[in-house]
Amino acid sequence: MGYNENLIGIGSKFSVTLRVKGKVVFLGTYEPKLDDKGRLILPARFREQLAGGVVLTKGQDHCVYAFETGEFQALYAELRQAPLTHKQARNFSRVLLSGASDQIPDKQGRINIPPALREYAGLDRDLAVFGAGSRVEIWDLKTWNEFLAAAEEDFSEVSEEILPGLL
Which whole-number Å values give the CA distances from 118 to 3, 50, 63, 124, 128, in the listed order? Predict the structure, then answer.
């Protein structure tokens, strides 16, 4: 099927980390809180994959994307292939890179979400942090719940267009 599972130890417990073609697939939804200094404690399930570095940037739908450093490097390599004369590519690159922040989580698994990214995504205290395949997305919890309620209505109809015959 093109995937394999590897056991990853987390403390005294184990969880299964899905990989496709050697790359981690981030899965699951968590509802942590942002502290007063703008720090987020990464969900335990994501910490090992992001321990070597994380890049935070503006995401579509006014959220924050969190990429493992290697995944962001691959994304940037693809983005560099677009010609400088392509206006949409230039604009996308500007938005993606201008507010980006690269950092290494501290010993407690915390990352600092810069004020500009918190403002862009409307992040207050209650968050939704979830795996979205190649990335982690960080949303304001209320905004996420509203988005999810609307998106779930279209889920079954759209699945046939995106994955015909598979679901």
Answer: 35, 20, 9, 8, 13
What class, spelled out in words, does domain 3-142 have in CATH?
A: alpha beta
Q: Are 68 and 53 in contact (CB under 8 A)?
A: yes
> Where exactly are the structural domains of the chain?
3-142
Q: Taking a C-beta distance cutoff of 8 angstroms, is the pair 48, 8 a contact?
A: yes
Question: How do residues 84-143 score in pLDDT, each as one tens digit?
Answer: 888 999 999 999 999 899 999 999 999 999 999 999 999 999 999 999 989 999 999 999
Q: Look-up: residue for tokens 């994501």?
A: 46
DSSP summary character for residue 5:
E
pLDDT band at 32 (very low <50, low <70, confident <90, very high): very high
The region that residue 112 occupies, defined by phi over 0 for left and psi between -120 and 50 for alpha, beta otherwise, is: beta
CA distance 33 to 126: 5
pTM, full prediction: 0.82
